[in-house]
Amino acid sequence: MFCPPCCDDASCPPVSLVIGLLTTFLLFFLLDANNPAVVIPSSPSVIYFLYLTRHHLESKHSDWIFLDNTAFGLDNPAVTWHSRTVVIGQHGLVDFAIGLYCCSDAALLNGHFGCFSFDFVLLSPAGMINLGMASLRLYAGLVGCRSGFCARSLRTLSGMTVSQIDEEVAKLLELKVQLGGDESRHQFTLKTAKGTRDYNPKQMAIREKVFNTIISCFKRHGAENIDTPVFELKETLTGKYGEDSKLIYDLKDQGGELLSLRYDLTVPFARYLAMNKVTNIKRYHIAKVYRRDNPAMTRGRYREFYQCDFDIAGQYDPMIPDAECLKIVHEILSELELGDFRIKVNDRRILDGMFAVCGVPDDKFRTICSTVDKLDKMSWEDVRSEMVKEKGLSEEAADQIGQYVSLQGGMDLAERLLQDAKMSQSKQACAGLTDMKQLFSYLQLFQVTDKVVFDLSLARGLDYYTGVIYEAILTQTGPVPVAAAQNGAGEKAEEGVSVGSVAGGGRYDGLVGMFDPKGRKVPCVGVSIGIERVFSIMEQKAEASAEKVRTTETQVMVASAQKNLLEERLRLTAELWNAGIKAEVMYKKNPKLLSQLQHCEDSGIPLVAILGEQELKDGVVKLRTVHSREEIDVSRAKLVEEIKRRTLDV
Fold this sequence. Notes:
This protein is of the alpha+beta class. Helices cover 34% and strands 21% of the residues. The strands form 4 sheets. A 9-stranded mixed beta sheet has the order 6-9-10-16-15-14-11-13-12. It has a 5-stranded antiparallel beta sheet with strand order 2-3-4-1-5. The protein has a 5-stranded mixed beta sheet with strand order 18-17-19-20-21, with helices on both faces.
């Protein structure tokens, strides 16, 4: 008796899913709905069965003979069955398939087989393709078959030849194409999604160092930590980002709330303040955000990336919190030693006043602001062309804007613009320029004016900014780091890294009020560190230097020079762990000493505690300094103290 192999039920889809989807398709496309009952004719017949199989079959023909036909109540010779199998879809690791079975000796079965109910669809989680004796016994109505079998014949055709069977197979293959088939399984390429990447231990060690530097700075300024969900209600994010709203990742509707992945950490923070009625907080938040942007991997631009945010919420005197945010940016970039940088500052009130006096219509302020924001990526000629040809701004207005956005300076520029014939006509601009003077006076007290420049071309296109805005720019370029090119197949290689903006922020006094039912405002100002771009520079520096990056903080390796000392090594390792020492031990009973020392060299472990029979008798441990290879005997009681003394910086 032939019995095809059975699939296990671990990954089989629920019966309701298969019946609801595939049976419906089959009944409409292929089956005769008016013939629910099956009558086995005297001539050869073909019976359709819906079933599942782990075996990926396109169109497989097989002949199988039942040597034992007692299940049919027959004493006649063996009966030959012919089959065709067509896979039409896939659910996980399980295939949806149609089987066609033709009995060339159907006349021998007539009068026996036809007297039983043949009203089945084969959908078995326990063994879908066992079409041998177990299935046939089920057809005959006998008990003791595999549990879970449920069969229903879908259609019976009489008097079919092999060529007609092939025609039926062709129809099923056509149906497979209509349903999408399962070709994608064979075209699958193992890679990360576009705009994302993996991080190896060396890269993670660099990231951890950067995070620690940033968090230390935030805490030094008295910030508290919070966290918010990675996705928000879509309406929470809608209308907050201007033209950048098209970059928001919307999640597929599952029949419930419409959700989107967070675009930044600022809008969720404002929602948090409004929802919890918080009116005063200094917070930091480090988490991933998502943007459906065109990634530039070598420039630290991704679709999934970390942001490090620091914000001050509350009613305070003007420009004091704003100046502290700029001080924080200065501290972080200086401590990370990324190279030369500048912090550009401007004010949305100054921009709006400038647009007004230059003749920009009120309804075009935001869209023209978004275009001006591209000046760090495009030439003025291209920006002007976009304003005139795409945004419908007059050439005269565009030229006047061009005269202002080319201006840079410090407190002196703010004083000069207050005397400007056009700018002085705008109350908005004058208020912004007055605050800009106050800001620079505080920055002088914080001793950071050497890196800060008042730049009228800085726009920052996000709609929620209401006052001071700023952006930190790294000015260095360099060779493309290998890590930055990881998973970047198909992207054009660049000759250098131009990281650009690494931090940005500003004042957003109206954002919280958008979420409050009564429109109550909570003044806020903050800064966001573009950490992925910082990582690009740090990785570049690590690859360019000969300095080895440690990926662990292990202080000591517990080793042995002789055999049969595993228990002693484990005992000493446990003592060190219990004392707060970061220790490792090799997972072998009798490792070679050379292998243990080489592991320390490769991993940068500074010390080795070596045990031997003599050391155990004397109650000492031989402590070896890896880089100098110097060894001293240290009593077991003083070992922890000696290791801590030697590894204060580890």
